[in-house]
């Protein structure tokens, strides 16, 4: 991974859990789960992977509902928290500590999701290729990212903030820092998916199935392996 020390950011002294604390509510979790189950058409017999699962909020909640789900993440700290919480919840989950660019499992999955992710910090072609390699034919993948158009609108309204957008590189940059996050338009993503034999089947602008447009909060794409 590039542009920042992600191992530190997601580690015990990192900012990840603090910066997203407001998002980690039970109400938000229920909204997320209804959306994931619905758009991925999850069934109890499906093999499911929560990619970049973090501390396992969605992984554990799905397992508690009877789904067979694995969790994979780079951070040993977050996976440690996930394992403890899964034990408390009384659910059995396979946790894997691997880099999303190079992960390798002997099995293929019916459904994979990369939810509420920092996708712009990844090498997108490599990650998508690994996902395609681990999906069964006809399997579905859900990618949830920020909507670049919403971001640009926000930055225009807050020109004195910490961040600026480099349109030539399609990157969000933090002033005076090394942070750079790559953003992708929907056609960009669809071309990357096409190269890995993944076909777009649905696009949403939010976790309540809102339509995707310039004002949408999220850019959520569901693709099928063909």
How widely separated are the two ends?
28 Å
Number of strands: 10
Which spans of ≥5 residues are poorly predicted at pLDDT below 50? none
Q: How would you spell out the order of helices and strands?
A: HHHEHEHEEHEHEEEHEE
CATH superfamily: Vaccinia Virus protein VP39
* Widest beta sheet: strand line-up: 3-2-1-4-5-10-9
- Round the mean pLDDT to the nearest integer and report it: 91
CATH architecture: 3-Layer(aba) Sandwich
Which range does the strand content fall in? 25-35%
Rg over C-alpha atoms, rounded to the nearest angstrom: 17 Å
* Helical run tally: 8
Largest sheet: 7 strands, mixed
CATH fold node name = Rossmann fold
- The CATH class name reads Alpha Beta
Structural class: alpha/beta
Q: How many domain units?
A: 1
Shape: globular
Helical proportion? 25-40%
Keywords, please?
226 residues; alpha/beta; three-stranded antiparallel beta sheet; 8 helices; 26% strand
Structure commentary:
The chain is α/β, with parallel strands linked by helices. The chain has one domain (6-147, 197-225): Vaccinia Virus protein VP39 (Rossmann fold, 3-Layer(aba) Sandwich), CATH 3.40.50.150. The protein contains 8 helices and 10 strands. It has helices at 6-9, 16-19, 26-39, 57-64, 76-89, 124-133, 148-157, 186-195, and strands at residues 47-51, 68-73, 95-97, 109-114, 135-146, 163-166, 171-174, 180-182, 198-204, 218-225. The longest helix has 14 residues, at 26-39. It is globular. The two termini are 28 Å apart.
């Amino acid at each position: 991974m590039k542009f920042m020390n992600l191992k530190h950011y997601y580690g015990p002294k990192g900012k990840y859990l603090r910066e997203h604390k407001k998002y980690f509510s039970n109400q938000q979790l229920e909204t997320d789960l209804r959306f994931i189950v619905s758009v991925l058409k999850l069934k109890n017999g499906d093999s499911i992977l929560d990619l970049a699962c973090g501390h396992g909020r969605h992984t554990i909640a799905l397992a508690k509902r009877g789904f067979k789900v694995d969790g994979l993440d780079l951070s040993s700290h977050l996976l440690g928290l996930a394992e403890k919480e899964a034990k408390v919840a009384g659910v059995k989950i396979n946790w894997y500590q691997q880099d999303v660019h190079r992960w390798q499992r002997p099995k293929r999955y019916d459904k994979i999701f990369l939810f509420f992710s920092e996708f712009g910090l990844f090498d997108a072609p490599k990650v998508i290729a690994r996902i395609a390699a681990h999906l069964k034919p006809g399997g579905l993948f859900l990618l949830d990212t920020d909507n670049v158009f919403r971001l640009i609108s926000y930055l225009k309204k807050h020109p004195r903030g910490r961040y600026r957008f480099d349109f030539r590189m399609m990157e969000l940059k933090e002033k005076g820092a090394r942070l750079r996050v790559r953003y992708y338009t929907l056609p960009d993503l669809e071309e990357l998916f096409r190269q890995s034999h993944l076909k777009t089947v649905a696009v949403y602008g939010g976790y309540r199935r809102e339509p995707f447009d310039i004002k949408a909060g999220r850019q959520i794409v569901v693709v099928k392996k063909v």
